[in-house]
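Justification of computing resources. Each target in the renewal requires a structure prediction run like the one illustrated here; the chain below, 206 residues long, is used simply to show the kind of job we budget for.
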Amino acid sequence: MKNLRYSILTAVLLIATVASASAQTKLATVDMKKLFNDYYKTKLAQTSLEGRKTELRKEIKDMAADLDKAQADYKQLVEQAGDQAISADERAKRQQAVADKAKDINSQQSSLNQFQRQAEAQLGDQSQRMSANLVGEIQKYVADQAKSGGYSIVLNSASVETVVYANASNDITAAVLAQMNAGAPIDLTTPPTSSGASLKIGTNAP
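Resulting structure tokens:
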């Protein structure tokens, strides 16, 4: 009987403790995905990234064009080396030219492939650093807004693994976003017209 009373008393105390903690803990939710996508600095960073992608694509296109020309020259040299009307010495010279051009083509192809890999890695690294820096800034804005609102915990409503249910009245996304974009240029406050392109650079090089 004593054990039963002790168990009941313990359960009552535990419930009272949890209830008290819940009353003192003020929760809020925030949509981190929306904050990231609608942050004006995100738009600036994406524009810069797209500009760099355009530059790299042009370099790759120029390198591919040079490779195409080298391959065309190679075919012409092969035809010239097969001319039966020329002397043996001249044929040997032309065959050497064919071999030299083949080495040049292999070198150009290798340089093109390496440049493309480096370009993709560079863009990937730039994108990751951009995202990390922006998320860090956004988290500071969220912390400031939470402190001013008296919230002890802020959950990310964009993550289904974090939030099962959230009352919209406790969502501070709009307030945080307004604070983040307070100093944004006027032409960057409107929503973007596109969701952004893939970072991978393509080429039609052979």
